[in-house]
Amino acid sequence: MNSFAPPFYEAVPAHPEEIVLVLVLDSGGQPDISVGGGTKFSRLQNRKLAGLLTDGRLRDFGELERYEPVFYCSGETVRAGTTDLMPIAANVPVVVGGVTVLPGYFVYADAAAAVIIPSVLVDEAFQLAARIELEDAAFLRSIRAEDPDEIRVRGSQET
Question: Second label for 9, Cα 20 to 30 Å away, from 25, 48, 49, 118?
């Protein structure tokens, strides 16, 4: 019988707390079916994973919100996927939201979205993100200092 436990423990290293680990699960092309809920995903809490990213749905939001890992999904459902989705492999490429994710890729997520970063582009991505953050901070200072009357007469440099 297929179950979530064997692929989970194959995917998770012996000491996941030594790295920041996010479990990435695809929905097998069935984004409206749950890939799991609070009981199954208690393993993430037990093994101290940072989070889970899936393009499927999850169950038990009330239980999941009490866990330390962060859960990113396409929404909540009460429909269990146990008869429709079976885990078949770990540490293999998956497709989440149309994006191929390989083992070792980086996941950056916040309340708005999740971004997948190929390992070879991590340094470049972080440098770009830092530059954008500095530009945004400078722009914010400029907005706070602008004179509304001057903007009405001359317009704004904002694009």
Answer: 118
In terms of domains, do 42 and 88 share one?
A: yes
Q: Is residue 159 part of a domain?
A: no
Rounded to whole angstroms, the Cα distance separating 128 from 116 reads 15
| Range 125-133, long-range pairs (CB < 8 A, 24+ positions) | none
* Domain count across the chain: 2
Q: What are phi and psi of 70, to 5 degrees?
A: -100, 140
Q: What is the pTM of this model?
A: 0.80
**How distant, in Å, are the alpha carbons of 18, 26, 89 from that of 36?**
25, 12, 16
CA distance 116 to 46: 25
Closest C-alpha among 38, 32, 29, 30 to residue 66? 38
Domain assignment of residue 67, yes or no: yes
